[in-house]
């Protein structure tokens, strides 16, 4: 295969361009410290999320970067983290300097913020030498926002997404050292909590009803267990007869439609029938003792009638009327309503 010089040149230019772009991206991401630097070490109990390359700031100005993060034994079965940083040589650190790991943005990026104790006198504070270590007493680990936000889950469930975003942003700004955000944070909490306070009567009634419901369920635990067992048996039977169930559902529409037509054509007769049934059942309930006596005497009456018929005698029974009614139509199949016998 013959390779042309032009192809080699174009391939070389493409490779050089790719290497240059990769170097440019790497330099952009690494953000090196300009000029000469001094190294210092900070001890932390926790540096979750802090990585090499994260910026080091003082009064909001970037003065260095994190060089490395290492694990170390703190004795007594505990551990600590050693954070090595590079600080521009033009900036000097005092022995009373304090360091805190803070959130850089909503995505969880961290940075190391340094502050000087303004209340300390120049006699008590000395200038740190390169390589010195700042102890645990002068460092603050990052806030675990995940655990903090989980504590507000019940509140977030009652809020709109926009309100949750505003509250979360206020939390992040507050823990980033922006004190002016504290007022906004408190205002947001007060506004969002006022809606819950206005509905405390509803919540109290809901809790009371839930307590009553749970008490009833506890008292009827055997019935509930039986109901669940019955539902389990029913579901098992239904699963074993899928074809019949599908057929029933397919025909259910036609059946319900026919029933609706019958109900519509009854012209109120169905409602009257239900009302009459209510009257009948009311009479039965009021005469329960007499009805029980009737049922108890029916076997004796049947035996007497059987003995009468066994000797060749006859028992004459005459049905006065038997009326069928459908809508406005009424028919007595045994003759007129008032016969000579049943006058």
TrEMBL record:
Instruction: Please give the PROSITE patterns that the UniProt record associates with this protein.
Output: PROKAR_LIPOPROTEIN
Q: Which UniProt keywords apply?
A: Signal
Which biological processes are named by the entry's GO terms?
biological process involved in interaction with host
What domain of life is recorded for the organism?
Bacteria
Domain Mammalian cell entry C-terminal residue range list: 124-251
Name any GO cellular component annotation.
extracellular region
The protein in question is named: MCE family protein
